Amino acid sequence: DAGITQSPRHKVTETGTPVTLRCHQTENHRYMYWYRQDPGHGLRLIHYSYGVKDTDKGEVSDGYSVSRSKTEDFLLTLESATSSQTSVYFCAISEADRAVRYFGPGTRLTVL
Amino acid sequence: QQQVKQSPQSLIVQKGGISIINCAYENTAFDYFPWYQQFPGKGPALLIAIRPDVSEKKEGRFTISFNKSAKQFSLHIMDSQPGDSATYFCAASVPSNTGKLIFGQGTTLQVKP
Questions:
Q1: Chain A contacts of B43, Cβ < 8 Å?
Q2: Does domain B4-112 have CATH number 3.65.10.10?
Q3: Whole-angstrom Cα distance, residue A100 to residue A109?
Q4: What is the pLDDT of residues B44-70, one digit of tens each?
Q5: A4-111 sits in which CATH class?
């Protein structure tokens, strides 16, 4: 398995609170991605990074921000969590934009 | 136009049977079509992928068939086994540096012993 960890693995929070999810890789891959997985929607890209401090929006970026200060870490922040952000969040990495994506184990987030 | 439509949503197959999952797309700029397999509680993992310059790719019991004119591609699992029970996602990407890999909605496959 590619060296990707996500923390926390499970989180329950309340509407309006800030939440930060962490993705850590040991593969030194350039690209990192955050996806959310919801029934009937497959996986949808939230944000991605193509290098340290280089990030861009995906298809469902509203309400989310990201930061990447080191190659190995990619943080996803929900500034003010809403119930619609209840989902399973996956981090992924790849050596190049069009190379294989390796996914982390996921974080199940519940916003009450 | 950026969508990838996947069917069926769920599939039940007997052990030893053939599982077939279909995907359709509109954007003719897509040029890379991977399939991912996901077991419960795990992240998706690349299963097999194809580029549109070939009509078929086979890896073991898994085959992708690609019909460029119809803008459709499908995954065939031959001799399906209970261990193949998982959720399968097709995906597509364009030749750009956008990071966008568009996923289908997913198919949950159950292989009965």
A1: 4, 90, 92, 103-106
A2: no
A3: 26
A4: 999 999 988 899 999 999 999 999 999
A5: mainly beta
